[in-house]
Amino acid sequence: MWVMKWSELLMIRTSQQISYKAMLLYYNWLQQQIQSNVPIDRMIRDLLSAKGGTFSAAATNYYQNETDTLKVAENVAQVFMGMRIQCAQCHNHPFDRWTMDDYYGFANFFAQIGRKQGEDPRETIVFNSGGGDVKHPVGGRVIPPKFLGGDSPDCAGKDRREVMAAWLTSPENAFFSQNLVNIVWAHFFGPGLINDVDDVRVS
Questions:
Q1: Is there a contact between 185 and 193 (Cβ–Cβ < 8 Å)?
Q2: What is the pTM of this model?
């Protein structure tokens, strides 16, 4: 039951970007995590910081389902924190606290994801490129990586995704645990404690 639920949340499905073999390995990775009773925080931390080949390190397929940096940031915020930050891409969110600076600061955690073809042409290697930034559309500024509702950490010389994943699943980020509770509640009782479960906002 929970494998199917998380398969939906993690977008485990065939697509033009991912081969059938890679997707099957991704599904098997998820199934193994849940069968082994791996804590959800550890599973998500490993998923979001995954690197290596899409065959040899199947969790990296998360970054093949969606390769657009901004969409990746939006998906992470929506699935793991219950926040729809899409509105803040073009203007400050009208019904929530998020500004354009918040949006592009969070997106910058995913700006240095590198991808290259493996020896098998069906496999992609996902790695930390160590360079690159998302630029704010107003003035072309670079907003340093910034946690949603939190600080701007020191990411120098680090994989930004690892820094973000460690914060996301830590007690410092109350959004993560509250969102998981809301998802579980909605699964068993229909409506979540807050509805919609992926649109938790101050309003």
A1: yes
A2: 0.91
